[in-house]
């Protein structure tokens, strides 16, 4: 019994250390891969530099997809976090850039419309609707990035379609992921070093877990098709 308890304790500590190592490495690689966006966020006022932020934001998308690949490999006992991140970056960066650019464009258009309509008589109806659509765009983009991290060879059209449908179908998971990301933004705004060095990977891991569960119907179909082939 003592040997069993010692073995369980050792495995628990090894798992905990592995998660801490994964989080720290992913945080570091995310900062490196998203450096233009990070520099702008740290050195400028977003209220005035938002056009530059909109241009730099898509450049962070490949790093996010690579981080999701690292999370998957860790859970499956595959590649180490550095090799998994690099492999994910190499496999998904083109599609991740397209997804990031599309999400950034949609969000910018919607927020500009919000600003234009905020002082009109229809603002009470249109502003909340446009805000929800902007959040939906971010949610679909998040799920799409997780999808290409899981299946890098999937067609982008199918990824976006599945992301849109499943994000709405399992809206509660999408809302939870967006809440976690919003909390991370708040942490970064008050303590950038803490947000970049510690909490970023935790928030993304939570969002990845939710998004992966959201995609289970599609991923299960892919697994069945692969098994039949």
UniProtKB/TrEMBL annotation:
Keyword Transmembrane helix: yes
Origin superkingdom: Bacteria
Keywords: Membrane, Transmembrane, Transmembrane helix
Membrane-spanning intervals of the chain: 12-42, 48-71, 92-112, 124-149, 193-209
Protein name: Uncharacterized protein
Upper taxonomic lineage: Bacteria, Bacillati, Actinomycetota, Actinomycetes, Micrococcales
């Amino acid at each position: 019994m003592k040997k069993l308890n010692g073995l369980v304790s050792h495995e628990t500590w090894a798992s905990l250390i592995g998660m801490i190592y994964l989080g720290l490495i992913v945080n570091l690689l995310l900062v490196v891969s998203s450096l233009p966006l990070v520099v702008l966020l740290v050195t400028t006022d977003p209220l005035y530099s938002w056009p530059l932020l909109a241009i730099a934001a898509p450049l962070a998308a490949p790093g996010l997809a690579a981080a999701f690949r690292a999370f998957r490999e860790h859970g499956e006992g595959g590649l180490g976090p550095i090799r998994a991140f690099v492999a994910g970056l190499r496999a998904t960066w083109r599609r991740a850039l397209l997804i990031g650019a599309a999400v950034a464009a949609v969000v910018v258009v919607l927020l500009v419309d919000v600003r234009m309509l905020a002082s009109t008589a229809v603002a009470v109806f249109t502003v909340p609707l446009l805000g929800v659509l902007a959040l939906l765009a971010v949610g679909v983009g998040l799920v799409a990035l997780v999808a290409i991290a899981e299946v890098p060879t999937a067609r982008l059209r199918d990824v976006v379609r599945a992301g849109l449908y499943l994000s709405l179908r399992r809206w509660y998971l999408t809302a939870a992921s967006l809440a976690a990301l919003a909390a991370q933004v708040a942490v970064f705004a008050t303590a950038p070093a803490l947000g970049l060095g510690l909490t970023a990977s935790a928030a993304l891991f939570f969002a990845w877990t939710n998004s992966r569960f959201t995609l289970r119907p599609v991923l299960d179909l892919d697994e069945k098709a692969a098994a039949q082939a």
